[in-house]
């Protein structure tokens, strides 16, 4: 590979990001939060659902022979009346894993350390750390393997590029939405203890956890497709973009 890709190299790179499946081991811890908090943090393109929920999705995955760990907090929202899951914190442990999703799809990826231990089933435990603070910590206790299961989710990411003085955006923001179907070979449900903490750079501990609800873990293959929805920039999006993806003011 050189500083300028050959046609063959360009074709290979494009093939890698054309919906290749993810082989993943993933834990999800779903929780109830408050509508007041969602009203505070959701960008103007969303409306707040009647039931305020969110979930931590954490695990390890391989795609196109590249492996990484990720830890993401999603919050429930409605976009044009459809339920979606909006990412407010997304920690990865590899540089290219961060660049791909952050620059291409508007995911709020940052670099951190992810300890994810599923070697002692039926217990899954771990901690996600950034700048010396354990932002997300969990211990899940699972039941029996329920076998093959199919699950779907609809993530939504706010894609926007600040100008060089952070006084506005270079272009109107775009909401990138996904349709993700995961076919699990093994699938478990259970219970979990979940703790979020805040640091000077990541306000995870600001998220109210009213209750921990559904807990799932499994090994499967995720296939996805993405769509883009241009948004009208009324000048209201900049604080959401900077607060979610940058460490500027903390």
From TrEMBL:
Please name the SUPFAM superfamilies in this protein's record.
Acetoacetate decarboxylase-like
InterPro entries in the cross-refs = Acetoacetate_decarboxylase, ADC_dom_sf
Instruction: Tell me a Gene Ontology molecular-function term this record carries.
Output: lyase activity
> Which superkingdom?
Bacteria
A matching Pfam family:
ADC
Q: Which residues form a coiled coil?
A: none
Read off the Gene3D superfamilies from this record: Acetoacetate decarboxylase-like
What name has this protein been given in UniProt?
Acetoacetate decarboxylase (ADC)
Upper lineage: Bacteria, Bacillati, Actinomycetota, Actinomycetes, Propionibacteriales
């Amino acid at each position: 590979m050189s500083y300028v890709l050959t046609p063959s190299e360009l074709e290979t790179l494009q093939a890698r990001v054309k919906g290749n499946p993810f082989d993943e081991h993933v834990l999800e811890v779903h929780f109830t939060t408050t509508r007041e908090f969602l009203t505070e943090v959701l960008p103007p393109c969303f409306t707040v659902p009647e039931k305020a929920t969110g979930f931590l999705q954490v695990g390890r995955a391989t795609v196109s022979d590249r492996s990484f760990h990720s830890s993401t907090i999603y919050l429930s929202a409605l976009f044009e009346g459809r339920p979606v899951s909006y990412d407010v914190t997304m920690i990865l442990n590899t540089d290219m894993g961060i660049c791909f999703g952050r620059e291409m799809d508007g995911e709020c990826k940052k670099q951190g350390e992810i300890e994810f231990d599923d070697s002692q089933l039926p217990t899954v435990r771990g901690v996600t750390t950034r700048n010396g603070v354990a932002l997300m910590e969990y211990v899940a206790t699972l039941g029996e393997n329920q076998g093959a299961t199919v699950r779907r989710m609809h993530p939504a990411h706010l894609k926007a590029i600040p100008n060089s003085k952070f006084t506005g955006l270079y272009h109107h923001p775009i909401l990138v939405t996904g349709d993700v179907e995961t076919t699990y070979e093994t699938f478990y449900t259970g219970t979990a203890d979940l703790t979020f903490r805040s640091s000077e750079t990541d306000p995870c501990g600001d998220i109210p956890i009213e209750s921990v609800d559904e807990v799932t873990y499994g090994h499967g293959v995720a296939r996805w497709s993405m769509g883009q929805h241009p948004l009208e920039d009324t000048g209201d999006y900049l604080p959401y973009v900077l607060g979610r993806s940058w460490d500027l003011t903390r």
